[in-house]
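Progress note, sequence design subtask.
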């Protein structure tokens, strides 16, 4: 800057045209507007700009003002030019492209090609194609492709790359592939464009084909190539391919590129190797928020929620400022652990740092509050949002459905349609789940057979499983079984167990036995099926059946997964195990459980010993039931959380019948809202009733 101020004013009269052009180029390249304007002024004063001025000089002035963001001056010069060449047109079009004024670019191109003897060059076509790419104007891009075929410029390297990039960015990957297949000699930029689009649209099989071509044609990779290829490896969960690419990028020295290293970390995370992702991270000399967030995402994807939160603490200690994606990951980790206190703290931090208006953060807040049992807080975040995307609507619909609030879920869905937002695959999982909670059979089939078809969404296993649950909820077990027989889908254990659980609820033991046999053929080690089958035999007082199930479990070395429940009190997580606990206040907790059970027995509570699989005396079975993990957690919550605050419990397994009956009565005698999130859904216990209406 000091050097600029010390330079004397230029005297264009003393300089040749070539030297003036050189000065204008220096001014443009360095965006030195003041110096360039001085030259322009001197040229005007000395009458060296007129209708007969050399076109190159005027083009240089246009280039100067374009690069110095003075498009209005550049446009004025352009409009006053008596004669223009392709450089004139391209300079102005490039300026409009840079500022995102796509319509101006296209209008200039339209004016150019309408001229007689117009001959746009490869640079103009590249500019127009880039404009179509950035603005998503595929029709104009196709028209440009037609011009290229007529004038033969489609084979030029700049044009080929721009054409492939345009089709890729507009997600017309098939057309991009056609250009690749019909025009030879592509550079790495073209392959990067296609590969990135294929990965982004989930077309991994074709992505692998492009990768094969990259290798066969010995194209030299750049950092963008590695990012796309690593993303592909993560998408298809191909760890071996990922390891090979990792070795290759180490040789090329690309590991130090922040985007490459973050994608490598993401690949290991998606392949289930979070600890390998940490090794990559620890080997990096420089780390920014992108790399930190990639590492947190890797741990989150593998269910390491506590470690995800710890990484965030470590990042904070190293004074790395989080971004909106970091907060989204952290809030989802809180959702996974159901730690409402930590989620509230993060929400406050989001507000303080100004990230509350980022839609990705708002969506994560809705999800966090929903999974932490505070669906009202989810609704507050949702109603406060001005802009919503399909993920926002889905989070609210699925949140209400998960809480058993089917009516509210369907109201949100109707609001979504009224707002003009198109539903997607996930939306209808939430909608059909809501129908199942409300036993709306006719409406459920309407959404499945008509509305999904209207929105061109092909139903999948999850939707069909919701229909099975819907029929079961309505007590139509035979219809549910028939639906499973006639529907051409590969049913999984979850769907069959849904029907099996309904057999347990509705005491249809004949059908239940048949379904259980089918499930155990699919998965002989599915402990949930053994438990349900044993409970059905016990309810029917078929003790020989109970003994047979227990014997079968012993022979197959199948053990019931230990029940684990936890709750959060003042940001500390308290974990309880069924039939035993090493909690420092265990004695007081056990005493509290006994007090609660004694209080609910006069209300009709009778221990359901059929829920106990242990081969012991009835009195001992009562003891096992007393210390199920959710009972311990609820007792501790009542000890430590003052009324009227709700007690929120998370459990890893389905609630057993005995605990469900007991907690309903406990909610009544304590006059407290008790929320339990088990493996299937939320149960909100209040005044002796449960939100699931005893069907779960």
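Output:
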């Amino acid at each position: 800057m000091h050097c600029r101020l010390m330079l004397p004013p230029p005297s264009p009269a003393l300089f040749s045209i070539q030297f003036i052009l050189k000065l204008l180029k220096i001014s443009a390249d360095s965006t030195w507007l003041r110096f360039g304007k001085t030259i322009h002024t001197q040229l005007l004063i000395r009458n060296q700009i007129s209708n007969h001025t050399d076109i190159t000089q005027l083009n240089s002035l246009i280039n100067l003002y374009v690069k110095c963001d003075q498009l209005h001056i550049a446009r004025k010069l352009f409009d006053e030019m008596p004669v223009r060449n392709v450089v004139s047109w391209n300079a102005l079009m490039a300026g409009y492209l840079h500022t995102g004024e796509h319509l101006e670019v296209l209008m200039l191109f339209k004016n150019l090609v309408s001229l007689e003897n117009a001959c746009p060059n490869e640079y103009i076509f590249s500019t127009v194609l880039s404009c179509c790419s950035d603005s998503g104007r595929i029709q104009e891009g196709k028209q440009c492709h037609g011009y290229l075929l007529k004038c033969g410029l489609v084979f030029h390297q700049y044009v080929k790359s721009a054409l492939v990039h345009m089709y890729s960015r507009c997600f017309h990957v098939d057309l991009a592939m056609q250009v690749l297949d019909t025009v030879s000699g592509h550079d790495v930029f073209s392959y990067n464009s296609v590969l990135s689009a294929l990965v982004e649209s989930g077309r991994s099989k074709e992505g692998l084909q492009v990768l094969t071509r990259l290798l066969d044609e010995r194209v030299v990779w750049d950092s963008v190539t590695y990012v796309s290829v690593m993303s592909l490896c993560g998408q298809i969960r191909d760890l071996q391919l990922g390891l090979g690419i990792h070795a290759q990028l180490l040789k090329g020295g690309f590991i130090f590129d922040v985007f490459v290293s973050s994608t490598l970390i993401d690949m290991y995370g998606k392949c289930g190797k979070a600890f390998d992702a940490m090794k990559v991270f620890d080997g990096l000399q420089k780390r920014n928020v992108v790399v930190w967030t990639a590492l947190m995402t890797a741990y989150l994807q593998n269910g390491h929620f506590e470690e995800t939160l710890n990484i965030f603490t470590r990042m904070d200690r190293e004074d790395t400022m989080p971004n909106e994606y970091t907060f989204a990951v952290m809030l989802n980790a809180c959702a996974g652990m159901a730690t409402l206190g930590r989620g509230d703290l993060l929400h406050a931090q989001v507000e303080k740092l100004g990230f509350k208006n980022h839609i990705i953060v708002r969506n994560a807040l809705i999800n966090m509050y929903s999974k932490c049992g505070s669906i009202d807080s989810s609704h507050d975040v949702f109603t406060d949002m001005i802009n919503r995307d399909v993920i926002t609507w889905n989070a609210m619909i699925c949140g209400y459905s998960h809480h058993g609030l089917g009516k509210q879920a369907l109201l949100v869905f109707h609001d979504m349609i009224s707002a003009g937002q198109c539903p997607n695959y996930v939306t209808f999982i939430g909608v059909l789940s809501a129908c199942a909670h409300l036993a709306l059979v006719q409406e459920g089939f309407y959404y499945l057979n008509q509305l999904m078809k209207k929105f061109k969404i092909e139903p999948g296993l999850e939707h069909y499983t919701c229909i099975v649950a819907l029929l079961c909820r309505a007590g139509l077990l035979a219809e549910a079984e028939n639906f499973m027989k006639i529907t051409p889908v590969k049913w999984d254990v979850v769907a069959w167990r849904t029907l099996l659980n309904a057999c347990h609820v509705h005491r249809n033991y004949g059908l239940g036995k048949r379904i259980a046999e089918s499930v155990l053929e699919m998965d002989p080690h599915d402990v949930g099926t053994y438990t349900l089958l044993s409970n059905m035999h016990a309810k029917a007082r078929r003790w020989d059946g109970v003994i047979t199930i227990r014997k079968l479990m012993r022979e197959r070395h199948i053990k019931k997964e230990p029940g684990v429940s936890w709750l959060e009190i003042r940001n500390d997580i308290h974990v309880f195990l069924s039939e035993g606990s090493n909690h420092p206040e265990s004695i007081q907790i056990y005493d509290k459980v006994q007090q609660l059970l004694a209080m609910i027995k006069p209300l009709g509570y009778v221990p359901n010993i059929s829920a106990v699989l242990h081969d012991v005396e009835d009195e001992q079975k009562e003891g096992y039931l007393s210390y199920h993990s959710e009972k311990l957690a609820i007792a501790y919550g009542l000890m430590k959380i003052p009324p009227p605050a709700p007690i929120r419990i998370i459990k890893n397994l389905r609630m057993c019948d005995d605990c469900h009956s007991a907690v309903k009565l406990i909610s009544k005698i304590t006059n407290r809202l008790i929320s339990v999130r088990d493996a299937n859904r939320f149960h909100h216990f209040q005044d002796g009733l449960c939100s699931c209406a005893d069907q779960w």
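Residues 461 and 489 are 7 Å apart (CA to CA). Work on this subtask will continue into the next period as scheduled.
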